[in-house]
Design a protein that fits this description.
Keywords: Oxidoreductase. This is Short-chain dehydrogenase. It comes from marine metagenome. InterPro entries: NAD(P)-bd_dom_sf (IPR036291), Peroxisomal_Beta-Oxidation (IPR051687), Sc_DH/Rdtase_CS (IPR020904), SDR_fam (IPR002347). With about 325 residues, this protein is an alpha/beta fold. The chain folds into two domains: about 220 residues, 3-Layer(aba) Sandwich (Rossmann fold); about 50 residues. It contains 13 helices and eight strands. Strands 3-2-1-4-5-6-7-8 form an eight-stranded mixed beta sheet, with helices on both faces. Helix 3 packs parallel to helix 4 and helix 4 runs parallel beside helix 6.
């Protein structure tokens, strides 16, 4: 296969001052894209404070390698900040073809220990941030009839994770947002997909670092662990979803440590009773949960077809 290039394309990558976002931005730029590197520059995992230097540092890396990039330090968590970064991208590069919604914070607490003051910022950055940035970008993409949007979900949101009730809720919301926006955007040439990444970054060191479960399970540590689980093992999947040749829409790719798979939501065939009772559900729960012949709906209408298939047999 010939090299997949992004010449002439413009990308906005949020949270790109380090970790996953940095790798996304550098890869896209190395393949010819002009990249707006956005990062609030908070020195904490909770997203407090503001420092433009991380985004500026990544821009310097890209430019030193011969790429094209500019820096932005607006916050994704406000409508004003999101609109500002999209406007800055359009002004700087004259267009916007790709949005990588990567910005995020993490505040791990078990459910009974997290309070609303910790819960709300997580939703603000992940869910509102995704919405706020996508809205003006989507409007532009609609006018030109083309766009690629890649949102960042998580296995925590898809499958659950101890101590991450806020983070999981936010990432599950992004999955649903991705699915619906993909349906709506298809008629405008806008493809919307998601990535569920696993990588060793500042946010995940307690789980994927030298003292975490991954090190224990793999026997790797130090540079070996950083290489195997680094963000560079995720960025290619994100870049593919952002490429014009990618026909996927509404999909979520799980990427970690060099492995890429498809994550999806399905529904079992289930049971049908004309007069459903609590006892019937209890007695037939194994059939309800059986994964034989399960369906992966493209939209909610296809799930309803399961009921219609039962009714049409009557």
């Amino acid at each position: 296969m010939s090299e997949l290039r992004f010449d002439g394309r413009v990308a906005l990558v949020t949270g790109a001052g380090g970790g996953l976002g940095r790798e996304h931005a550098i890869l896209l730029a190395s393949r010819g894209a002009a990249v707006m590197v956005n990062d609030l520059g908070s020195p904490t995992m909770g997203g407090q404070d503001h420092d433009p230097s991380p985004a500026e540092g990544v821009v310097e890396e890209i430019q030193s390698a011969g790429g094209v990039a500019a820096a932005n330090s607006d916050s994704v968590a406000t409508r004003e900040g999101a609109e500002s970064m999209v406007a800055a991208t359009l002004e700087e590069f004259g267009g916007l073809d790709i949005v990588i919604n990567n910005a995020g914070i993490i505040r791990n607490r078990t459910f009974l220990n997290i309070n609303e003051y910790e819960f709300e910022p997580v939703m603000d950055v992940h869910v509102k941030g995704c919405f706020f940035v996508t809205r003006p970008a989507y409007e532009h993409m609609k006018t030109v009839g083309y766009g690629r949007i890649v949102n960042t979900s998580s296995g925590s949101g898809l499958f659950g994770s101890f101590g991450q009730s806020a983070y999981s809720a936010a990432k599950a919301a992004i999955y649903g947002f991705t699915r619906t926006l993909a349906i709506e955007g298809a008629r405008y040439g806008i493809h919307v997909n998601a990535i569920a990444p696993g990588a060793l970054t500042r946010m995940t060191g307690d789980v994927l670092g030298d003292d975490g479960a991954m090190a224990e399970m793999t026997g790797l540590s130090g540079e070996d662990l950083a290489y195997q689980m680094g963000p560079h093992q995720v960025a290619p999947a994100v870049a593919y979803l952002a490429h014009e040749s990618c026909s996927l829409n509404g999909e979520t790719l799980s990427a970690s440590g060099g492995r890429v798979g498809r994550a999806f939501m399905g529904v079992t065939k289930g049971i049908y009773e004309d007069d459903l009772t609590l006892e019937t559900v209890a007695e037939r729960i194994d059939e309800v949960c059986s994964e034989d012949d399960y369906l992966v709906p493209d939209n909610v209408d296809q799930e309803i077809e399961l009921l219609l298939s039962h009714l049409n047999q009557e």
